[in-house]
Amino acid sequence: MDAEAPLIRQWRVPTNVPLAKLAGAVVLVALGLLFAEGDPVQLTVIGLVAAGLAGWALRDLLAPVRLAVDPAGVVVTQGFAGRRLLPWATVERITVDRRPRLGLTTEHLEIDAGESLHLFSRYDLGAAPDDVAEALQAARPT
Question: The whole model's pTM is what?
């Protein structure tokens, strides 16, 4: 391996996150079948919610890498499973947003690329947003 080859670092959804979403969809369907008592409206709503949860898990399985960095810039997910390169010249700010919600503090990595803002949680990155922000700042050319 060439010692001067650029390193590419990436952050991905932890494996347990899509598995938990799929398990939640299965539990939801089971509870719906158990308690809906044959009501077609309730079964339809439960089916739609479970399908949405399964689709969300499918996205995690098809595009697990949410964020990557290389000398050219930052690669983020776009759409359901697409990718988009944000050249370093377009990245204005990399910050971590902390907000109290329901007695807990949530943290999101924010990448401000001028016309677009990209948000990532710990569950998107598989790492603490602070650590990822530091790694991105270190990778950014001076």
Answer: 0.83
Beta-bridged to residue 84, according to DSSP, are 76
What is the spatial distance between Cα 9 and Cα 111, in angstroms, rounded to a whole number? 16
Q: How far lies 121's CA from each of 12, 26, 27, 48, 54, in Å?
A: 11, 25, 25, 25, 20
Tens of pLDDT, residue by residue over 66-108, are 999 999 999 999 998 899 999 999 999 999 999 998 899 999 9
Alpha-carbon distance of 142 to 117, in angstroms, equals: 22
Q: Are 25 and 3 in contact (CB under 8 A)?
A: no
- Answer whether 49's CB lies under 8 Å from 28's CB: yes
**∠70-71-72 over CA atoms, to 5°?**
90
Note the pLDDT of residue 81: 87
Which residue is listed with tokens 């998107």?
Answer: 124
- Residue corresponding to tokens 């270190």: 138
Tell me the pLDDT band of 5, cut-offs 50, 70 and 90.
very low
Q: Which helix (H) or strand (E) holds 138?
A: helix 129-139
Tokens describing residue 102: 């329901």
pLDDT score for 2: 43
Hey, what are 85's tokens? 């390169």
